[in-house]
TrEMBL record:
<dbReference type="Pfam" id="PF00107">
    <property type="entry name" value="ADH_zinc_N"/>
</dbReference>
<comment type="similarity">
    <text>Belongs to the zinc-containing alcohol dehydrogenase family.</text>
</comment>
<dbReference type="InterPro" id="IPR011032">
    <property type="entry name" value="GroES-like_sf"/>
</dbReference>
<protein>
    <submittedName>
        <fullName>Alcohol dehydrogenase catalytic domain-containing protein</fullName>
    </submittedName>
</protein>
<keyword id="KW-0479">Metal-binding</keyword>
<keyword id="KW-0862">Zinc</keyword>
<dbReference type="InterPro" id="IPR013149">
    <property type="entry name" value="ADH-like_C"/>
</dbReference>
<dbReference type="GO" id="GO:0008270">
    <property type="term" value="F:zinc ion binding"/>
</dbReference>
<dbReference type="InterPro" id="IPR036291">
    <property type="entry name" value="NAD(P)-bd_dom_sf"/>
</dbReference>
<dbReference type="GO" id="GO:0016491">
    <property type="term" value="F:oxidoreductase activity"/>
</dbReference>
<dbReference type="InterPro" id="IPR002328">
    <property type="entry name" value="ADH_Zn_CS"/>
</dbReference>
<dbReference type="Pfam" id="PF08240">
    <property type="entry name" value="ADH_N"/>
</dbReference>
<dbReference type="InterPro" id="IPR013154">
    <property type="entry name" value="ADH-like_N"/>
</dbReference>
<feature type="domain" description="Alcohol dehydrogenase-like C-terminal">
    <location>
        <begin position="188"/>
        <end position="267"/>
    </location>
</feature>
<feature type="domain" description="Alcohol dehydrogenase-like N-terminal">
    <location>
        <begin position="25"/>
        <end position="144"/>
    </location>
</feature>
<keyword id="KW-0560">Oxidoreductase</keyword>
Length: 381
């Protein structure tokens, strides 16, 4: 079969790989019909994730048709059209029992902080992902969910990660009615977080990024304010000024580790150019939130990103929450929001690309070219 193939930082291509096989009685094989590229894939693409092996296939956001099931699979059948949450979760461990599917204790033999994730390096379990014609889906009674008959698969594919992650970002932020919510990052996740903030009763939603077309997009899509941090004297100062010097009620970090690094200005106006892997957005979030406020972190960082102003976090009495999204926990209510028209996931898809063109697709998404927000890779039927 054809599959995306990692060759090293900034180098991916398609290659032939063996068709995946059932290796365990609870496995299923899914013929992929759509697979997205995620901002999380960019951390792999940029070479920031430890133990990302040459030859591996990325892709944790996919939908498809069940082609084969192992003898112990009872919840889905051959021919079902399923969406596959990005978390690989056993459904039985102490964390899965608490619906913390992103923290499954069984699926990731490396026993790192996270459970396994499709196509996300050997640090996250070493499973191949869905940017391929076929994918092996372990614990197939747990993750894969039959797509409702009235749901567009383009909406469904975004329910595998981006929509639940934006929603969980807003949920973890503990938004109260009328709150001012600041979202750092206007990528797919930040856009969804901004959109979902309204569902939780936000009174004002402000998004910060520096890619103009994304700011324009989020203004329209999420009906919010959006500002370019490069044209602000200081994003933290700006947020303070616009909130009567109190700070935002909650801040959401939808950026994570940034390979490019970015210019950071401090409250004193001093400019610092941070190294790759710096935590600029998180720094801003901690400083821009009000005393006693909540910082919700969904941006993905390496274990040792530093320069986090932990002293301000303590002195301001902040609550910080973060996690990999527990997709399965959120699916029932998100399917309802989509069916009721309150969320329009496919509205963020800007690019549909044959799987064969994966190299160009990664480059365009990574470099923020061609007004790209979200790319869907389509394997040949
Ligand atoms: P993306 O790369 O498309 O978007 C990130 C955006 O942040 C870009 O538009 C970039 O210009 C902007 N940015 C960079 N530095 C900034 C700064 N200092 N302040 C404000 N904006 C800045 O990625 P995405 O798909 O939207 O994902 C965003 C983050 O969420 C990534 O770190 C990704 O790994 C993470 N993520 C987490 C989960 C989870 O389960 N927690 C799930 C999906 C994605
Ligand atoms: Zn993703």
């Amino acid at each position: 079969m054809l599959a995306m193939n990692y060759r090293g930082p900034y180098r991916v291509r398609v290659a032939h790989k063996p068709h995946p096989e059932i290796l365990h009685p609870q496995d299923a094989i899914v013929r992929v019909t759509r697979s997205c590229i995620c901002g999380s894939d960019l951390h792999l693409y940029h070479g920031l994730v430890p133990d990302t092996r040459v030859g591996s296939t990325f892709g944790h956001e996919f939908v498809g048709i069940v082609e084969e099931i192992g003898p112990d699979v009872t919840k889905i059948k051959v021919g079902d059209q399923v969406l596959v949450p990005f978390n690989i979760a056993c459904g039985e461990c102490v964390f899965c029992k608490q619906e913390m599917y992103g923290n499954c204790h069984e699926s990731n033999a490396q026993a790192t902080a996270v459970g396994a994730i499709y196509g996300y390096s050997h640090t996250a379990g070493g499973y191949d992902g869905g940017q391929a014609e076929y994918a092996r889906v372990p614990y197939a009674n747990v993750g894969p969910t039959v797509i409702p008959a009235d749901m567009d698969p383009d909406d469904a594919v975004l329910l595998t990660d981006v929509v639940p992650t934006g929603y969980q970002a807003a949920e973890m932020a503990g938004i109260q009615t009328g709150d001012t919510v600041v979202v750092f990052g206007a990528g797919p996740v930040g856009i969804m977080a901004a959109k979902c903030a309204w569902l939780f009763g936000a009174g004002r939603v402000i998004v910060i990024d520096h890619v103009e077309y994304r700011l324009e997009f989020v203004r329209n899509y999420a009906q919010c304010e959006a500002y370019n941090f490069e044209s602000l004297e200081d994003p933290v100062l700006f947020i303070k000024k616009t909130t009567a010097w109190l700070g935002a009620d909650v801040c959401i970090d939808a950026v994570g580790a940034d390979a490019a690094g970015s210019a950071m200005q401090t409250l004193t106006g001093r400019k610092l150019l941070l190294q790759a892997g710096s935590a600029t957005a998180l720094h801003w979030a901690i400083n821009a939130v009000k005393k006693g406020g909540i910082v919700s972190v969904v941006g993905v960082y390496g274990p040792t990103d530093n320069l986090v102003p932990i002293g301000n976090m303590m002195n301001k009495g902040l609550t910080m929450r973060g996690n990999q999204t527990s997709v399965k926990r959120l699916l029932p209510r998100l399917i309802e929001h989509v069916q009721a028209g309150r969320l329009d996931p496919k509205g963020i898809i800007t690019h549909r690309v044959p799987l064969e063109e994966v190299a160009d697709a990664y480059h365009i998404f990574s470099a923020k070219l061609d007004n790209c927000i979200k790319t869907v890779l389509i394997p040949s039927p």
